[in-house]
Design a protein that fits this description.
Length: 298
């Protein structure tokens, strides 16, 4: 019979998961699949029949229902990589192969037939969603970011993955801007020299830690068409700039609202995903147990 043990963010703290991983022991000659992500550590092993509860659990994991962010897509690739890595190291039983191959297929079906993975659920993703909504041609747009931090770095990655080419990064400390810009082939500048860049900017994304306004009305020409996303708290951009006829201004609350709406929309898709998983569990267990019984008789 196939078995598994698990420690996840739903049942244990980070320290407890670390301890679980450090003390985890399986005989080296026992073929198994080790699934290790930031949210969970799980081990599957054995042969023969697969209990329904195990299939239900793994299918839910691959579909993103057990993740911190419901419906997140990264888990599909993580499970695939862990399964392939274990397959290269061990002679896995046919039951484990069927279990994981079916789970990956179920994950794809859930994401195809439901909206469980649709909509941005992080600030950086929400920024890209706004740019798409505003029909920004990223390949042709001049994009300026203010502030060196993890959020802006994630945004740069997303922008470049979507084809953005002209990206400028400004910061109070020029050396920090240079360091981050060099990683992604961007142009760096010091914050007090931003005016020449703002004059030609199509999209401004700002997320500094400054305690005061960075972008004031005198920095933006009344005739300039510009999309501004102010992700800072307190705000970097004077809200009166949003009243200019050619300016579209999003602030942090706008981005949070978008993220929350998308999270709520994903939660509404959970029942659809669960129905798909229940169907697939029934099909899998019926077929797998027949195969296991036949193999036992032979």
């Amino acid at each position: 019979m196939v078995k598994y043990i698990s420690s996840s963010q739903k049942t244990s703290s980070l320290a407890e998961r670390e301890q679980f991983f450090r003390t985890l022991q399986l005989p080296k000659d026992t073929p198994h699949v080790l699934l290790q992500t930031c949210d969970r550590v799980e081990v599957y092993w054995g042969e023969g029949s697969v209990p329904e509860a195990i299939a239900q659990h793994l299918f839910s994991v691959v579909s993103g229902l057990e993740s911190s962010l419901i419906g997140e897509g990264a888990i599909q690739g993580q499970v695939k990589n862990c399964y392939q890595d274990s397959s290269s190291k061990h002679a896995l039983s046919s039951s484990l192969h069927r279990l994981f191959q079916t789970a990956l297929s179920v994950g794809k079906r859930v994401r195809t037939e439901s909206a469980i993975s649709q909509g941005a659920v992080s600030h950086s993703q929400a920024v890209i969603e706004c740019l798409v909504q505003e029909k920004v041609q990223l390949k042709n747009a001049l994009i300026t970011l203010l502030g060196v931090n993890k959020l802006n770095e994630d945004i740069i990655k997303f922008l470049q993955s979507k084809g953005a080419y002209s990206i400028f990064l400004g910061n109070r400390y020029f050396e920090k801007a240079q360091e981050q810009a060099a990683k992604y082939g961007c142009k760096a500048f010091q914050l007090d020299q931003m005016q020449p860049f703002l004059d030609y900017t199509d999209v401004l994304i700002t997320a500094t830690s400054a305690p005061h306004l960075i972008v004031r009305p005198e920095h933006i020409s009344p005739n300039q068409k510009i999309l501004i996303l102010d992700l800072a708290f307190p705000r970097d951009v004077d809200e009166s700039i949003g009243l200019l006829p050619n300016v579209t201004l999003y602030n942090l609350e706008d981005i949070k609202d978008r993220v929350n709406q998308n999270k709520e929309a994903r939660m509404k898709e959970v029942d659809v995903a669960l129905q798909i998983i229940d169907e697939e569990v029934e099909k899998f267990c019926t077929k797998n147990n027949k195969v296991s019984t036949t193999a036992f008789r032979n």
